[in-house]
Design brief:
By secondary structure, the protein is of the alpha+beta class. The chain is built from five helices and seven strands; from the N terminus they run E-H-H-E-E-E-H-E-H-E-E-H. The protein has helices at residues 14-24, 31-40, 86-102, 116-125, 161-166; strands at 5-8, 46-50, 53-62, 69-77, 106-112, 129-138, 143-151. A seven-stranded mixed β-sheet has the order 1-2-3-4-5-7-6, sandwiched between helices. A hairpin with a 6-residue loop joins strand 3 and strand 4 (69-77). The longest helix has 17 residues, at 86-102. The protein starts with a strand and ends in an 18-residue tail after the last helix.
């Protein structure tokens, strides 16, 4: 069994995230696009790491016009590490940070209509619903996409300030106001 940890992405992970993307998906991005994400929304990018190797990642962003909407740009897990629940954990980490750091109300993504495994994950495990079908959204290996979205749960009421003081495990990048985060 592999020991896998989910953690925030660092700039020095980007090359390995890109390598993971190239191995898993037809939709590939140049390094500038990864840099744009990590510089703009460092709180949202997470990686799955095993024995010092990046075995999965989630690339996510906030919509720049509708700022309460988050979007999952890309998520991938290397084949030997699938079926361990890593994609679910990566998605949950990104969604949690969207709510805590940016006050996100909704999150969306695109998925190939033929990607049964991903569709099942998004629908059953993560509660996304299909909003629309976008014709030939994917240009490489052309295919339609389902545009999926879910409403994010806002955080429960903050505990009183004396309780917050003893638990200051705040997010390393978090803008004010500070809120508590949980590690997996």
């Amino acid at each position: 069994a592999h020991m896998v940890t989910i953690r925030l992405c660092r700039v020095d992970d980007l090359v390995n995230m890109q390598a993971c993307n190239l191995q898993c998906l037809a939709e590939n991005y140049d390094m500038r696009y990864y840099m744009y994400h990590v510089l703009s929304w460092p709180q949202l990018l997470h990686v799955a790491e095993s024995a010092g190797k990046i075995v999965g990642y989630v690339l996510a962003k906030m919509d720049e016009t509708n700022t309460s909407d988050g979007h999952i740009t890309s998520i991938a897990v290397l084949r030997p590490f699938r079926k361990l629940g890593l994609a679910t954990k990566l998605m949950q980490a990104a969604q949690k940070a969207m709510v805590e750091c940016f006050g996100a109300k909704r999150v969306s993504l695109h998925v190939r209509v033929s990607n049964r495994a991903a569709l099942g994950l998004y629908r059953r495990s993560l509660g996304f619903e299909v909003v629309s079908r976008e014709h030939r959204y994917y240009r490489i290996e052309p295919e339609d996409a389902f545009f999926m979205r879910k409403t994010l749960q806002s955080e429960p009421a903050e505990p009183s300030s004396d309780q917050v003081a003893e638990k200051s495990d705040s997010h390393p990048f978090k803008p004010e106001p500070r809120r508590r985060t949980q590690q997996f």
